[in-house]
Amino acid sequence: MTTQIDPFRKLSPNKIRAYKQAPWREQTRLLAIGLAAIFGLMAMLGLFIFTGAQAAEAGLRVQSLIRDRDRLMRLLESQESELTQKQSEEWMRKRAAELGFGPASPTDLDYLSVPNEAPAEPLSVSPTSFLYTNAEVSLAPAYRETLLEWLLGLIQPKGAK
After folding, report:
1. Disulfide check for 160: which of 3, 4, 97, 156 has CB 3.0–4.6 Å away?
2. pTM of the shown model
3. 87 close to 93: Cβ distance less than 8 angstroms
4. For 6-155, where are the alpha helices, taking DSSP H only?
């Protein structure tokens, strides 16, 4: 006669403890903890390697940009030196002689007189002269008044101006 196992029957505490402390169960738990720790360390290591590689790449890019900047600065200095040399009087006289030019004598010069020439007026380009005197620009009085004028207007009565 076979005995049937009742699934709802309560197991004895000894059987539960024996099941919980079974060697294969303990080994499986330790293996899972170990593997989780190893995967965690590998993920951290991968993150460190990835950020280190990015930093190294950025460093190489910066070095490349610094080399380019230095090369361009040397080129600019070379061109400035060449320009300074070409602006010298000695070089210009030599180049003019190569092109067939020579010094002009007073008899070679022609002067042109212009009758009724208007005298040159000084040009003021300051912002205040433009804002306050140019008739083409119409600004509200509040924008034409200085801070000092505004304060004096507050202090003095209207008829005292």
Report:
1. 156
2. 0.41
3. no
4. 13-20, 23-86, 89-98, 127-133, 141-144, 147-155
- Distance between CA atoms of residues 40 and 37, nearest Å: 5
Q: Tens digit of pLDDT for each residue in 34-88?
A: 999 999 999 999 999 999 999 999 999 999 999 999 999 999 999 999 999 999 9
SS3 158: helix
User: What are 33's two structure tokens?
Assistant: 């903890």
Note the pLDDT tens digit of each residue in 100-131. 998 888 888 888 887 887 777 776 666 555 55
By the 8 A CB rule, do 147 and 154 touch?
Answer: no
Instruction: Let me know: does 137 contact 130? Beta carbons within 8 Å.
Output: yes
The amino acid present at 149, given as its one-letter code, is E
d(CA 48, CA 56): 12
Tokens 């899972």 -> residue: 32
Q: What is the largest CA-CA distance in the chain?
A: 147
